[in-house]
Amino acid sequence: MGAVLGVLGLLPVSSPAQTYTTSANDLWDVSQGTVVTATSGANAPYSDIRDMFGGQFSEDEPGDTIFADGQPPGFVHFVEWQTAAPVTVSSFVLFASGDGPADSNQREFSQFVLKAKSSPAATNFDLMLYTLVVTNHPYTFVDPVHLALVAANITPVTAQSFRAEFTQYTAGRGYDGPRVIELDGFGPNPPVIVTQPANTVTITGMNATFSVTANGSVPFGYQWFENGSNLLTAETNATLILTNAQLAQSGNTYSVTISNAYGTTNSIAATLAVNQPVIPSSIDLWDISQGSMVTGTSGAHTPFSDIRDMFGGQFSEDEPGDTVFADGQPPGFVHYVEWQTAVPVNLTSFNLFAAGDGPADNNEREFSQFVLKAKSSPSATNFDLTLYTLVVTNHPYTFVDPVHSALVSANITPVTAQNFRAEFTQYTAGRGYDGPRIIELDGFGPNPPLIVTQPTNQTVAAGANATFTVGATGIGALSYQWFLNGTNALASATNATLTLNNVQPGQSGNNYSVLVSDNSGSTNSAGALLTVNVPVNLLPSSNDLWDISQGSVVTGNSPVNSPFSDIRDMFGGQFSAVEPGNTVFANNQPPGFVHYVEWQTAVPVTVNSFNLFAAGDGPADNNEREFSQFVLKAKSSPSATNFDLTLYTLVVTNHPYTFVDPVHSALVSANITPVTAQNFRAEFTQYTAGRGYDGPRIIELDGFGPNPPAIASQPASQRTIPGMGASFSVTAAGSAPFSYQWFVNGSNQLAMQTNATLVLTNLQLKLEAWKSGAALGENDVGLGEGKGAATGGDQDGALGEGHAGKIRNAGDGSLMSERRPGW
What is the pTM of this model? Predict the structure, then answer.
């Protein structure tokens, strides 16, 4: 029989992710009657060879087998085993782990060989089933989560006696015997599902995860479906992750088909429940801030816990905000609390928040039944109204909002009462930590707040502030709590307006929402998206291809606002009488009128990008002097009778303008398809008319060729004092857009410092001299590098560090700055 050879190295990036878990009922498991017949020896007495086949006999690492230590590299450890009856094996999975690079990858092997006997009478293992040469140490896993090292099909073989060999990889400190977690063999059968997808509950904006595990001949293929028939094309792994779940998805079902070479198996359908977030309230009807007081209780876990924390208090010593009932009671014991509101209240709904200690601690601190009661009148001798009963069937709890531990959020038949009682039947007992834990119990009236103005999406430049606002109405005082991405409560963000100061690119894509509450309930707003634009630093150029200093001349234009303005100022001139450097087209034209300018360069030039600088008069003046459309054209040849090439068209939708660099009024910075031409035309369609100041204002129009950036303004040396900041800036001309990367001391790249300005905060003294550095930037043409600028301190012994700017574009040119020592 031919053997399968595997070389364990880097997996191809196209390999689909697979999940492999150890099996308790594979063909080689001890539970199926397999017995070990021979071995080179385990690391006795701490390890047992049977654990490789599903046993739990090892003293130190139950479930793992560690072969004997003290052998040299190249030593062949082995195990031989026999199944209860002959079995047909078509695939196997091997789980193993070493001690990692910090321990020289001890307990790894360099080769694995799987063999079998062709018949019970064979005198040796004459069938070579699989060979693996391990080239990567530490191991490269096919499933790193479950430490699956190999999952392979083999030519099907029917045998009863098998042998596995593990060649030792290293030796040194004496902990060298390979560690094998499990070796599972499977027959030529369709997959068998071991763990079905489970129903999942999440809240809006959060993720939901469904998983399946299977045994059988590997590898498996997975295909997930929504509602039985909707193929989720990209979902082909053992785990399905649904991101940003929404209410519309609630009730959808998700199932998976698992396939291998021998058939397919369909999972059950699991249901997704998506709920609105349910968050504890500080002003509900039962909150102590509203005058509620506890009138009776079975007892809290004193002195560590306080019963009042169930109603918004923070009195507990160990878990402030939570109430833990007294320990030492048997299962079925009824813990209770009774309370009275300041005045009778009209109750229509409530939320209950609770948490146990989880499966690892036997789900202690959970309850098995909750009952909510009230008195029908203040004079009633008992709590004669049962408002709600919950029998808990799932332990650990199944939450309606797992993020905030909301166990119940329910409407009840409206009742007006002043005296209430809650009963919690203890679920378990054992280690003495048994009293149920209640986080909060909130009651609400019939009219939760109504949101009349939702927060809206915001787009701002990096470093600017962003503001989100909500408008709401309700009964009495309203409270607000803003959240980041649905679940992260923002500290001190408790007003109707949320202001984020100095936002940075890393915050772009964040979602902000607000929970508005009154004593009748809470309402969640819609989420609003924050977009942060990374600012660019664009300055008009004095040596671009279209500048009059380079020989460009205006050959035609619609009238300008003479005698105050001059068309040449659009190309670097300073001829205008009123606004030198700006061109203002003629006034008194109707909206839609096309102003234009035509110009010719001294020689044909190749243009692949341009920058347009413009400014209107702002909203207070009806955004006069703006245009609604810009078109850039060229002639394909000097003999062309018209401008037959359209290079770029911009339709302006925002008035006032939205700039790519608002500091320098850069409206457009764009690459175009490279064109070689000598004659160009720009058209500006008038936006508005009214008071007579309507001609568009153009500050400058610069054209660039396929050349590296030229640094127009180098970073300058700075002096500061400890604890203060320093700022370095660079400006460049060339084919925009530019990208920037700052460096310290020439070679140390500064993470996230990718703008034209570098801001250093809270500077401290250094005890060694640093040479000037470089900050690298780029655009689509090549490289330019800024001059080193030093930072110095104002105390004796203070020495500086150097920073500079390198600017890159799409070519392959490069300009390095000079280096200067720090101070």
Answer: 0.49
